[in-house]
Amino acid sequence: MLPLTAITASQTDKSPWMTSIYAGVITAIAATATALLFQAEIPALYILAFLLIGVGPVLGYDLAMGQLGRDWKPLIGGLLGFILLILGWILWPILVGAMSKQQSIGKLFVASIVGIVLGITALLLVGTAMGQNPSWIGFGFVLLWAVWGGACGALMTLWREPEA
Q1: How many CA atoms lie within 13 A of 67 on its CB side?
Q2: What is the pLDDT of residues 44-81, one digit of tens each?
Q3: Is 14 helix (H, G, I), strand (E, B) or coil?
Q4: Which of 100, 141, 106 is nearest to 122 (CA)?
Q5: Cα distances (Å, whole numbers) of residue 12 to 80, 149, 159
Q6: Which residues contact 14 (CB under 8 A, 6 or more apart)?
Q7: Are 130 and 1 in contact (CB under 8 A)?
Q8: In whole angstroms, what is the distance from residue 146 CA to residue 119 CA?
């Protein structure tokens, strides 16, 4: 956290903290919809909501940068990045980076790995605290993807390429 704080203090234009909050909240909303629709056993809506998890970090980044609606290609890349359920965190950076002028595929891949590691850590911490009560699994799922989305959004802000 100290390097992120130092980088934030040196930046004057856009804050990765706000991007992290926007991206985390949007991703958490999509993950909550996914968890609720999975419990309601509505497969078509469950799959659609799961695809929207990939849009969360990109939409949060666009909101924080003040460029919402300027470029739709990264949003489409984020949506398509989650088509393969298990490999979504690998396919997401490739598609978003390929469709964005400001993001590098390699940096997005590192951001996705950092986000998934932090998300799994948060999931396991909640699981450790809750024990064998299975009621935490839905909350853990939402927490995993919210942390992933927030981390990806913050790192997208820090590592963005300058506009040409």
Answers
A1: 17
A2: 998 899 889 999 999 999 999 888 878 889 888 888 88
A3: coil
A4: 141
A5: 33, 23, 15
A6: 64, 65, 157
A7: no
A8: 8
The residue-averaged pLDDT of 5-28 equals: 76
- The rounded radius of gyration (Å) of the Cα atoms in the chain is 16
pLDDT tens across 115-158, in order? 999 999 999 999 998 888 888 888 999 999 999 999 999 999 99
> What single string gives the DSSP state of each residue in 98-156?
HH-SS--HHHHHHHHHHHHHHHHHHHHHHHHHHTT-GGGHHHHHHHHHHHHHHHHHHHH
Q: pLDDT tier at 10 (50, 70, 90 boundaries)?
A: very low
Predicted confidence (pLDDT) at residue 42 exceeds the cutoff of 50: yes
Q: List the one residue out of 133, 112, 141 whose CA is nearest residue 28.
A: 141
CA 69/CA 71 separation, integer angstroms: 6
Cα 50 to Cα 88: distance, rounded to the nearest angstrom = 10
Tell me which residue has tokens 């998300």.
Answer: 119
Given this model, what pLDDT does residue 113 score? 93
